[in-house]
Design a protein that fits this description.
Structural class: mainly beta
Distance between the termini: 57 Å
Helix content: under 10%
Largest sheet: 5 strands, antiparallel
Shape: globular
Strand order of the largest sheet: 1-2-3-4-5
Number of strands: 5
Length: 110
């Protein structure tokens, strides 16, 4: 068993940059020159069109050709069908009101 980790950047056709991290497990196939891989992919971007990827759980399966060192992975986004509402992660932060203030409680008093 081999546990490959890969990091890189994907540039989309509309010039968005998506950071990619792959954490995988790979085993030798019976053919001898290829390795089967299963992986978890992390995708991170600031581009509004792809921001939903920031909170996605992505798994993949594929192969690694050891002679050419080329990888291919079919990726699948897992969808939580149990939660009532979509996750708030990956959304832009709400602006805090300037009128809010915080006053810490002095030590010893409650």
């Amino acid at each position: 068993m081999w546990t490959p980790n890969l990091r890189g950047v994907i540039r989309t056709t509309d010039d968005a940059d998506i950071l990619l991290t792959v954490h995988g497990q790979s085993v030798q196939e019976q053919t001898g020159r290829r390795r089967a891989i299963i992986a978890r992919l992390e995708l991170l971007t600031e581009h509004d069109r792809y921001r939903w990827l920031n909170s996605s759980f992505v798994v993949g399966e594929g192969e690694i050709d050891e002679e050419t060192e080329k990888w291919w992975i079919h990726a699948f986004v897992c969808v939580n069908e149990v939660a009532e509402h979509p996750p708030g992660i990956g959304q832009r932060r709400r602006r805090r009101s300037a009128s809010r203030s915080y006053s810490p409680t002095p030590r010893g008093s409650l």
